[in-house]
Design a protein that fits this description.
mainly alpha; 2 domains
Length: 152
């Protein structure tokens, strides 16, 4: 008789995947998803996630902060750097697809008035051959940040 995986092992797989992805894993991303569905969720992937992570239909209480506006610029920058270093995206599209439950580039655009490449340049991340207009935008923002920090 074939011995199956125990619940603790399957739960560890889900938690490890969540930590690596920065979001709840999709069933197609987990090699043992049939066992997880059967042992942790009575045949349901969503039920398995709910049993391990809490009520997935109320994700706000589990993962999202109430409002990204409550975060300081430094905290948002740290999140961006953490995601960028974890994902090593080759493009904006790849970054957006894999960022998990973090602020979108649109939010960064609205908050800092900077494009994806400008944000990478500001945070001194992997930017090859930056455009002159991006360099100027970042320099203006850095000057503004210095002025604001001196006035407080």
């Amino acid at each position: 008789m074939k011995k199956g995986y125990d619940k603790a092992y399957l739960k560890d797989i889900l938690i490890k995947s969540y930590n690596e992805l920065g979001r709840l894993p999709m069933r197609t991303e987990i090699i043992h998803y049939p066992a997880i569905e059967n042992k942790l969720g009575n045949g349901s992937w969503n039920e398995a996630l709910k049993n391990v992570f809490g009520d997935i239909h109320k994700r706000k209480t589990m993962i999202f902060p109430d409002n990204w506006n409550n975060y300081t610029d430094e905290q948002l920058n740290e999140l961006f750097i953490e995601d960028y270093n974890r994902l090593k995206p080759k493009s904006l599209r790849e970054f957006e697809a894999c960022r998990g439950f973090r602020p979108s580039i649109r939010y960064y655009n609205d908050r800092f008035n900077l494009s994806y490449n400008c944000i990478k340049l500001l945070l001194e991340l992997d930017v090859k051959n930056p455009q002159q207009k991006h360099i100027k935008q970042v320099e203006r923002l850095k000057k503004k940040m210095i002025i604001n920090s001196n006035s407080h």
